[in-house]
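Summary of Year 1 activities. Much of the first year was spent building the evaluation harness for sequence design. The harness presents a backbone, in tokenized form, and records the residue chosen at every position. We chose the following record to illustrate the format because it has been used consistently in internal testing since the harness was completed.
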């Protein structure tokens, strides 16, 4: 089991509530993608079903823990996106409603995890409302919310909301170094710096060599801006599995340019390879152009995260052209 120290307080809270027989029926666990909120939900589910939990964590040894490990505990249900689906289907919600109405097979709690709850569509959300309001028997539903504001108010209002706070920079670093002992410490620092302080994202970045990818991206963008690389060639190299990360990085770079424009402080640029280009472009463009550029990227990011399946190549091309246009803008 992967213990994430920044979850400990909430694990204890749930354990205390259980001991006092005061557990709410629906708990929304809210926090950024990189805080391991899904891991927390499953840890809590295991602990509630475990026969002898220790300090709120599952023992990993008992019959219930073994059944959970094997994915065959009858008093547990997990609702997640099915492969290639963009939304949690209403048929999945209906099976959850059935699960909640049955009595416990092993005589203890029944636990369900919905991950993430913002992937429920309107019909699915509505089908869930009654269950959240009047769950039968001893059922606890954990709803994982990475973007709480995207969850319907009618769902939110029926849950007890627990917010997961990111760890301190030092705690995040020490967790990363412990989890990835072979990783280069400079790379760990760098990846954490571009992860919004969220350690699970930093870990993913370290594993996928995000720092190296950023370097390649900066070189490519620099070449495209100087018209030494075609827009379509660069777009093709970006339109891969990491496209969403790339958009987030582009937005971070634009925000750094905006900050630099007002402070003239080079330390706002987190990636040393990016300084020369971003500084130069920030000098060419004014605030309003940079804010427009940021907004254009946010629009594309929202499209990408939504259910419309935008064409990745065209999406990248439209943004790269905007970066090229910075060369033409003048304050
Ligand atoms: Zn156990």
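For this record, the design step produced the sequence shown next.
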């Amino acid at each position: 089991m992967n213990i994430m120290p920044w979850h400990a307080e909430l694990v204890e809270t749930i354990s205390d509530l259980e001991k006092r027989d005061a557990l709410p029926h629906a708990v929304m666990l809210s926090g950024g993608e990189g805080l391991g909120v899904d891991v927390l939900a499953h840890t809590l589910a295991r602990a509630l079903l475990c026969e002898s939990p220790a300090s709120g964590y599952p023992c990993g040894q008992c019959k219930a823990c073994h059944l959970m490990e094997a994915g065959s505990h009858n008093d547990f249900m997990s609702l997640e996106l099915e492969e290639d689906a963009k939304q949690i289907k209403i048929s999945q919600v209906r099976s959850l409603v059935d699960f909640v109405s049955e009595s416990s097979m092993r005589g203890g709690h029944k636990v369900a995890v919905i991950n993430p709850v913002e992937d429920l569509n309107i019909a699915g959300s509505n089908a869930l409302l009654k269950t959240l309001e009047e769950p039968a028997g001893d059922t606890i539903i954990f709803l994982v919310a990475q973007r709480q504001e995207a969850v319907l108010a009618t769902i939110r209002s029926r849950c007890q909301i627990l917010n997961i706070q990111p760890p301190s920079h030092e705690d995040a670093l020490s967790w990363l170094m412990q989890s990835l002992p072979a990783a280069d410490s400079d790379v760990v620092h760098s990846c954490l710096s571009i992860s919004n302080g969220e350690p699970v994202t930093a870990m993913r970045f370290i594993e996928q060599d995000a720092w190296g990818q950023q370097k390649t991206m900066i070189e490519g963008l620099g070449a495209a801006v100087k018209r030494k690389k075609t827009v379509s060639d660069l777009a093709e190299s970006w339109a891969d599995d990491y496209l969403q990360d790339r958009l987030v990085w582009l937005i971070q770079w634009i925000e750094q340019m905006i900050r630099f424009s007002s402070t003239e402080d080079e330390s706002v640029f987190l990636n040393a390879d990016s300084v020369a280009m971003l500084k130069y472009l920030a000098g060419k463009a004014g605030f309003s152009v940079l804010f427009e550029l940021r907004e254009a990227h946010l629009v594309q990011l929202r499209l990408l995260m939504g259910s419309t399946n935008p064409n990745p190549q065209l999406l990248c091309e439209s943004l790269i052209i905007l970066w090229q246009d910075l060369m033409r803008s003048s304050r």
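The domain at 208-326 is CATH 1.20.272.10 (Zinc Finger, Delta Prime; domain 3). Quantitative recovery figures across the full test set are reported in Table 2.
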